[in-house]
Amino acid sequence: MHxxxxxxxxxxxxxxxxxxxxxxxxxxxxELNSAIDVAVKKSLADAAMNAAKSAGASYCDVRVGRxxxxxxxxxxxxxxxxxxxxxxxxxxxxxxNGAWGFAATNEMTADAVAKAAQQAVAxxxxxxxAQTAPVELAPARGVGEVSWxxxxxxxxxxxxxxxxxxxxxxxxxxxMDAGADFINSILFLVNxxxxxxxxxxxxxxxxxxxxxxxxxxxxxxxxxxKFRTREGLSSPMGLGFEYLxxxxxxxxxxxxxxxxxxxxxxxxEDAIAAAKQARAKIKAPSVKPxxxxxVLDPSHTWLTIHESVGHPLELDRVLGYEANYAGxxxxxxxxxxxxxxxxxANVNIVADKTQPGSLGAVAYDDEGIKTKKWDLIRDGxxxxxxxxxxxxxxxxxxxxxxxxxxxxWSNVQFQRMANVSLEPGKAKKSVADMIAGVEDGIYIIGDGxxxxxxxxxxxxxxxxxFYEIKNGKITQQIEDVAYQIRTPEFWNxxxxxxxxxxxxxxxxxxxxxxxxxxxxxxxxxSSTARFNGINVINTxxxxx
Amino acid sequence: xxILTEAQSKAIxxxxxxxxxxxxxxxxxxxxxxxxxRFARNNVSTAGLTDDIELAVQxxxxxxxxxxxxxxxxxxxxxxxxxxxxTLAQLAPDNPEFMPAVEKQSYKPSPTFAQSTADITPDYxxxxxxxxxxxxxxxxxxxxxxxxxxxxxxxxxxxxGNFGYQRSTMLDYTCTVRxxxxxxxxxxxxxxxxxxxxxxxxxxxxxxxxxxxxxxxxALEPGKYTVILEPMAAAGLIGFMFYFFxxxxxxxxxxxxxxxxxxxKLGEQVFGPQVNFYTDPWDPVAPCEPWDEDGLARQRMDMVxxxxxxxxxxxxxWAQKQGKPAAGQMGNILMTGxxxxxxxxxxxxxxxxxxxxTWYIRMVDPQTVLLTGLxxxxxxYIENGQIKYPIKNFRFNESPVxxxxxVEELGKPVRVPPDEVSMNIVVPPMKLRDFTFTSLSxxx
Lengths: 544, 444
Hints:
The structure holds 2 protein chains of 2 kinds.
Chain A: H1 2-14, E1 25-26, H2 38-54, E2 59-75, E3 78-96, E4 99-105, H3 110-127, E5 144-149, H4 161-177, E6 182-198, E7 202-212, E8 215-221, E9 226-231, E10 251-253, E11 259-261, H5 267-283, E12 290-296, H6 298-310, H7 315-319, H8 333-337, E13 349-352, E14 373-378, E15 381-382, E16 404-405, E17 414-415, E18 419-422, H9 431-436, E19 440-452, E20 458-470, E21 473-478, E22 481-486, H10 487-492, E23 494-497, E24 504-513, E25 518-526, E26 529-538
Chain B: H1 6-19, E1 24-40, E2 43-61, E3 64-70, H2 75-91, H3 115-118, H4 122-138, E4 141-158, E5 163-179, E6 185-192, H5 200-213, E7 223-229, H6 231-241, H7 247-251, E8 277-279, E9 301-305, E10 308-309, H8 316-322, E11 332-335, H9 342-347, E12 351-365, E13 370-383, E14 386-390, E15 393-398, H10 400-403, E16 407-410, E17 414-416, E18 424-427, E19 430-441
Parallel strand pairs in B: 7-12, 11-18
Antiparallel strand pairs in B: 1-2, 1-4, 2-3, 4-5, 5-6, 7-19, 8-9, 8-11, 9-10, 12-13, 13-14, 13-15, 15-19, 16-19, 17-18
Helix pairs in contact in B: 4-5
C-alpha cells in the first residue's frame, strides 16, 4: 500500500493544481504555527455529545481535528513543489440501539456539530436492525481534561521554508558532486492537532508531530545501459526538525563502513555515501541463488516485521473484516489459544504505543484509551493480537490495547497497527560478533522491494545494499538479491539478535488499510538479527 | 450541492481569473458526491456519503508559482484565495522548469457521465450488499465486499481564455467470497461509469463459483508454465509498466525504455508483434476526461503498435526541451486483442495454469520492470483444454516486458477495476508461455 501514496505525491510534484485530496486545503506557511483554542474545542465537543445523547445515543465520542502537512519536493538543483495543507473539522461517533453511527462536518459551529451528531445517531439506528450482535465496548474510565505533546525540540512547521529549501539543495548538490546522476529529496512534515472527548468523561488534547526526509539517488552507466538507485537510510520518526541535525550520537558505523542512523540523521552525509554506493551497485557481481544465512540490519528488518508480524496480528484481519482489501491472516484464533510457535525462542515481539521517537507514540489513542506496551510473541510463542474497544471481548480481554486511529477528522477511527518491534537480545552481542559466526551469508542494509500474500504466509523482500559474508568476513558488495520466506519458518530460523546497543527504529509513513482507504504511520524497532538457511533468488533479467 | 452546472462554474472561474494581478492565472473547480457501503462476514460494516467541492488557483510571476485552494465561493473568499496564491508565488523560488499556462484549447466532450450512476441512492447500495450477502449465505459462503460510486464535475479556466467543463460518474464494485472452512476463495470486480452495465446478482455468482471451485487445491512445483491470465490478473502487471512510460526517464537513462549508449527506444520493437496499446479519451467502455492535468487536450494516441514503441509520455517541459510537439498525457490504457473468451483460451490449451487475479505487485528491478506478486482467488491447472483441479497459489517474478514477448494468444478485451493502476484500463485475457512462478504460497 505504500507505493500508491507515494505516486499520489509524485503527481502533486508534477501538476501544481492537483493536491492529494486526503491532505485537505492548501494554506500559507505561517498558518502552520497556530492552533485552535482548547476551550473552543471543548464547547464543540460538549455540543455534539449533548445532541447525541438527546437523540438517543448510549455512547458518543467526538474528535475535533486540525491536520497540518507540509511537503517540500526537489530534484537535483530544482524545487519541484512546496505544499502546505490544512484540514480541520469534527468527527462524531455514536452507539445507538447497539449499533455504530458516524458523521463528520467541516463546519466548526455548535449548530453544525449538533446536526452531525443527530445524523450519526440516525445512521446508527438505521444500521441497528441488520446488526447480528450489539456493539460491546471494553470498559474505559474517563480521564478528565488532559493534554500531551510529542516531545520535540524544534517544531518543523516553524522552520522557515527557505531554510528547508537550502538544506535540500545542499544535500542534492553534495550527491551530484559525489557522482550521482539524479537525486530526488523530499521533506514530509506532519502535525496532527487532535482533541478527543467522550461521554465516558474524557477531554484529551494532543499535539502530534512526525517527520520524514526520504531521498532516492540514481547512478546511470550509459555505455552499458545499466542504472541503479540507492534510497536514503533515514527513517520516518515521531520527532521534530532536530532529527535532521545529524548529531554524532545518532550515527553507527557498521563493520563494512556503511553509516546508519538512529534518532538523528545526517542527510548530506548519507546522500554522498548513496551516490558512491549506487555507482558501486552497477559494477557489483550478481548473487548466486541458493540458501544463505542472512544478517539483517534494523534499517531493513522493520519492513519484514511490519509485513509478517504487525499485519497478521491485527485482530480485524484475523476475523475477516479486511478480507476484501488488506487481507486476512494465517495467525487464526486457534493459534493464539494453542500459543503457536511463531518463531524461535530468540523472537520476542512487542506492540508499543508509548515508545519515544516512534511514529505511533501518543498518550491516548483515538478512542481515548491510555496507550501501553504489550506482548504479541513471547519466547517465540504467539500470545496476543492488537485489538480496540469493540474487539477486546472477542479475544477474551477486559481492556482495549489502545491502538485505534483515524487519519482525519472525516474518517471513522478503527484498529491500526501499533509500533511492533523485535526486542534486542539479552546477551551482549555486537554486529561484528554476529558476522564473525557466519560461514556463508548475506548482510542486508536498507529496505527495498516487498510483497506478501493476503494471509501473510509467503513474502519476498529486497534491500538497498547487499554484502557477501564468507567465513565470518564481509568480502564484497553484491547485487540482484531478494529473499523469499514462509512467515513461521522464517521467524523460527532466527538464531540470534544483537544487544540493545544496536537497537534502531525504521518505519512506514503511509501504511494503508480500510475501504475507503486510510493511511497511518508506524515504527518498527530491532537490533541486527540473523536468520539461517533462507532462500535467496537472483533478480537480474535480460530484455535482450 | 457539490455539482455545479457549466454556467455556474464559468461564472466563478471567470471572476477568479479576472481578480488575479499575477502574470498568469489558472483555476480549477472540482466537486464530487461519493457514496459507499462496505460489508464483511456477511454483514454490512460501514456506509457513508461524502460531499466535497474545491477551487484551486495557481498563479505565476515569471517563473515563480503559487497555489491555494478554498471551498467557499462568495466574492470575499474568491479574492482571498487569489491573494493567497499570489503571496505564495512571490515567496517561492524560481522554477527552472516552469511552463506557461496552456493556450486556448478545443475539447471534444468524452462519455464519462451516466445518469444511471448519478441516480444511485443509499437503498441501491444497501441492495447491492444484500444481494451479495444473501446469495453467499444460501450456499454457506462468506462475502466481504465494497461498493463505491460517485458523480463529479471538473471545470478549468486560465488567463489565456481557455475553458473546459465536464461531468463524470464512476461505480466500482469488488467482492471477495470465501468458503466457511477458509479453504476456497473467489473474487469479482466491476468498474464502469454506467451503473446500468453493473449487475450484482450475476457478478456475485462468478466469485461464488471461484470460491467453491478453488477448495482442495493441490500443490504444483514452481517453475515456468504456460499461463492464461484473466484480464484482472494481467492488468496489474501491465498497469504497473505504464508508470514507466515517461520520455524523460527514458532519455535520462533510467528506464526500461532507455537505449544503451543514450536516447530512448521510441520506434523500436520492445514487445511481441501481437501487442498493441493505445489511449483514447472517447473510448465508450473506459473513457477519461478530454484534457490532462495541465489542461492540454488529449488525443487518441497509439503507444505501442505491433510491438513497437510509437509514443512515450512527454511532460510539456520535456517535450519543449526535446523539440517534440506537446500532447495531452495518456488518461487510460487500452489494449487490443481478439474475440475469444477466457473459456475459449482454456479450451485450446494442452497444459497450463489459469490465473484469476494477481495481488500485491511490487517492483523488484526497474531496469527490466521485474515485478513480483502472487496469484489468488482461483488458480487452476489446465490439461487437454479443461480445468482439471485447483492449485495452490504461486508467487511470480516476471517482467511484463518479457511476458509480452511470450504471447501465444489474446482474447477479447474488457475493462477491469484499477487495483494497481490509477488509470482506467482495458485488457484482454491472455495466453502466455514461460511465465515464471518462483515459490508456492499457502494463502487462500
